[in-house]
Amino acid sequence: MPSTNPLAWVHGSDAPEKPLLELGFMALTDCAPLVVAATQGFAQAYGLSLNLRRQSSWAGLRDKLLNGELDAAHSLYGLIYALQLGIGGSSATDMAVLMGLNQNGQAINLSAALQHQGVTSPEALQRFVHQSRTKLTFAQTFPSGTHAMWLYYWLASQGIHPLHDVDSVVVPPVQMLAHLRAGRIDGFCVGEPWSASALEQRQGFTLATSQSIWPDHPEKVLGCTRAFAEQYPNTARALVMAVLAASRFIEQSTENRRSTAQLLSAAAYLNAPLSNIEPRLLGQYQDGLGNQWQDPCALRLHDAGRANLPYLSDGMWFMTQFRRWGLLRDDPDYLAVARQVQQLALYRDAATAVGVACAATDMRSSQLIDGSRWDGSDPCGYARSFPLHALAETPAAFAHP
Question: For 27, how many CA atoms within 13 A lie in the half-sphere containing its CB?
Answer without folding.
Answer: 23
